[in-house]
Each structure stands twice: as C-alpha cells, then as structure tokens.
Amino acid sequence: MVDVLVIGGGLSGGSAAIYSAQGGLTTNVVDAGKSQIKQVSKLYNYPGIKEIPGPVLLETIKEQAIASGSVWIEGTAEKIKPSQGGFTVQLGDGRDIETKYLIIATNLQTSLLEDLGFELVVNEKVPSGKIKKVLGVRQDGATSIPNLYITSLLSGVSSQSVIAAGHGAQIGIAIVSKETGTSYMWHDK
C-alpha cells in the first residue's frame, strides 16, 4: 500500500506529488499523458517564469516529483473502489494499487467520480463549458469521502496554470500535515 496515489500527472497532480513525496509519504502518480498544458506553446502567466512551453513546464514538474521520491506510472486508472483504510485503484493494465489517500487530478476523466456517486456540473469558470466540476468539494480539495481529494478544475478553481499547481501543492501539504499530525512546512535550503 502506498500513502498517496495521484490520478493525473498534469500541473496540479504533479505539484501534489512533489509536496506529498517531499513530506516523506510514499507517492505514486498514474499519468495518462493527456494534460491539457501539453497543447500550450508558450505560457506567459506563470509567476517567476517569463515564458515557457507547456510541455517543458510539465516535464520539469514530473522530474521534480520523481526527484522528491514519487513513482511515476504511465497508464490509466479505470476503477476506484473504497477499501478498508483507503482505496484500491485498478489500472488499465489490470494492476491494482492500494492507497490510503487518493487525489483525483484529471479534468476530463469524470467517469471515475460519477462511479463514486459524485454530482458534476459545468465549471462556470471555464468559458468553453467543456470542463465540469464536482459539487461539494471543499476549498482544500477534501470531499465527503474520507481521504479522497479533488484538485484543479474539477474542484471548481479557476482555469489558470499557477492556480492549478498551487491547489495541488495545497492538497499535498494538507495530506502530509494530516498524516504526520503536525503542520507541514517545506523550507528551501
């Protein structure tokens, strides 16, 4: 069993993985490789970076997550089953991963959430109307199911890359703090 499993390796999921792994929790990321940021040729609105291609930012976040100790699994999550003390997630290749904490960080794969009984509506913060959000997600990403967190656009946050990354980091920090019983603070050296 791993401590944290993140479904979705985009900006939000990758950031959550960096912080949970850096906080000492065993962390796996299941990534289908479909992050929307891959389509962005240049980001100009990410503080601290004048401009960067979306795929380069995504790869950098993945490298940071792995360097922090995360295990990156290329594939898809097909089914989530709440289990004793956490969740069992079935991957597309038939493997099961058991986890105590689960972070859903996908914007388009909503069937996993619908299967768990969550109600989804159109995220009014996305002008195209093609992205949904889950009703009842708290600001910290927590849901009505213990140890299940939802981040990024599915949680109802705005459609900005820095907000998605920050929300994922917030969830990673919240999980480490909950698991360790102390407020997690990661200081640079």
Which helices and strands appear, and what pairs or packs with what?
Layout: E1 2-7, H1 11-22, E2 27-31, H2 54-67, E3 71-74, E4 77-83, E5 86-91, E6 96-104, H3 111-115, E7 120-122, E8 132-134, E9 148-150, H4 161-180
Parallel strand pairs: 1-2, 1-6, 2-3, 6-9
Antiparallel strand pairs: 4-5, 5-6, 7-8
Structure description:
With 189 residues, this protein is α/β, with parallel strands linked by helices. It has one domain (2-180): FAD/NAD(P)-binding domain. Helix content is 27%, strand content 24%. The protein contains 4 helices and 9 strands. The chain has helices spanning 11-22, 54-67, 111-115, 161-180; strands spanning 2-7, 27-31, 71-74, 77-83, 86-91, 96-104, 120-122, 132-134, 148-150. The strands form 2 sheets. Strands 1, 2, 3, 4, 5, 6 and 9 form a 7-stranded mixed beta sheet that branches. Strands 7-8 form a two-stranded antiparallel sheet. A hairpin with a 4-residue loop joins strand 5 (86-91) and strand 6 (96-104). Helix 1 runs parallel beside helix 4. The model has no long low-confidence stretch (mean pLDDT 91).
